[in-house]
Amino acid sequence: MPTVPYTLTRLGVVMTPEPGNEFEAEGVLNPASGRTPDGRLHLLPRLVASGNVSRVGLAEVVLDGGVPVGVERRGVVLSPDEGWERGLNNAGVEDPRITWVPRLGVHLMTYVAYGPLGPKLALAVSDDLRHWRRLGPLHFAYQPDLDTDLNLFPNKDAVFFPEPVPGPDGEPAYAMLHRPMWDLGWFRPGEGVHLPAGVTDERPGIWVSYVPAAEVERDLGALVRQRDHRLVALSAYPFEELKIGAGPAPIRVEEGWLLIHHGVSGHIPPGWDPTNQQVRYGAGAMLLDPADVTRVLARTATPILEPETPDERDGTVANVVFPTAIEEVDGVRYVFYGMADAKIGVTRLDRVG
């Protein structure tokens, strides 16, 4: 398989928890990003309060010579206020990913609603990054050939492409990457793993679902009604032996669609407490075919970023680098990432060769 000619170069830490800020008591991490109508670059970090209750904040990026070096906080823009974002003993709006879609004139924020049945995907939209309108939980249409209902399963790591791509029928469609998890034992003890028809590897991987562009452009709410589900990629290399998931929104490069993803290795014991995991999160990259985004043209066999610095190796969850946002400043692309579930770092995306 051809190589992916892109690398990441560390530049430093851009956001750490603010002392005395109750919303950030357990960390700031895994940011989305975007630009406000005045062109200013912002991060939308996951803010974690005591009890693992997450909110989405807004923080303007401070630049020094065009390079991100810090942030100025602008408040909270999304909290777990809806009933489906809360359980009796949990709550959270987590790990936002934002895609600016010029054709629609809106930012699409996918996020994980940590509700009564665990992590489920949801969608909100905004034209200014400050005011968000929930379109609701994502719904996956029943697809007989899969012999299962994707709505049964926890799901994470969802992100939209920034423009329509060819759907399965060849017509333009808005496509969303996501990562279903097939083990239902966490919710119903003894139930175990339920795989879709044709899938033999139970490790969570990257899927894509579509909505016809014409439907979305008539009614933005159609984006929550996903259909035509297809597998894109599963774990293939040692650094991603447990699972993989999409990172930032794919970006169009000369070779195709560049998708930076995370890969997880190590051991995950039963349950949902990440602090009990003995894992290592690294970042990889793959190139997807613009004519068919389910076709992987190339992928990295080793990480392009892995936990090496103290900020990446020590934190709420040790040994984690988790890229979630890409932004361009003066022709240079920067990738923002979570560091050990506690801080936010930035790298420069470089093309090599």
Question: Keywords, please?
Answer:
single chain; globular; five-stranded antiparallel β-sheet
Structural overview:
This protein has helices at residues 213-218, 310-313; strands at 6-15, 28-35, 41-49, 53-64, 67-78, 93-101, 106-115, 118-126, 133-137, 139-140, 155-160, 165-166, 172-180, 206-212, 225-233, 243-246, 251-253, 256-267, 278-289, 292-299, 321-329, 332-339, 343-351. The longest helix is centred in the middle third of the chain and has 6 residues, at 213-218. It starts with 5 loop residues before the first strand and ends with a strand. The mean pLDDT is 96. With 353 residues, the protein is mainly β. The protein is built from two helices and 23 strands.
SSE diagram, text form:
Elements lengths: L5 E10 L12 E8 L5 E9 L3 E12 L2 E12 L14 E9 L4 E10 L2 E9 L6 E5 L1 E2 L14 E6 L4 E2 L5 E9 L25 E7 H6 L6 E9 L9 E4 L4 E3 L2 E12 L10 E12 L2 E8 L10 H4 L7 E9 L2 E8 L3 E9 L2
Parallel strand pairs: 10-15
Antiparallel strand pairs: 1-23, 2-3, 3-4, 4-5, 6-7, 7-8, 8-9, 11-13, 12-13, 13-14, 14-15, 16-18, 17-18, 18-19, 19-20, 21-22, 22-23
Largest sheet: 6 strands, mixed
Class by alpha and beta content: mainly beta
Q: Which stretches are poorly predicted, pLDDT < 50 over at least 5 residues?
A: none
Query: How helix-rich are the residues, as a percent range?
Result: under 10%
Oligomer: single chain
Mean pLDDT: 96
Please tell me how large the radius of gyration is. 19 Å
Run of helices and strands:
EEEEEEEEEEEEEEHEEEEEEHEEE
How much of the sequence lies in strands comes to over 45%
Number of helices: 2
The total of beta strands comes to 23
Q: Which of globular, elongated, flat, extended, rod-shaped describes the shape?
A: globular
| N-to-C CA distance | 17 Å
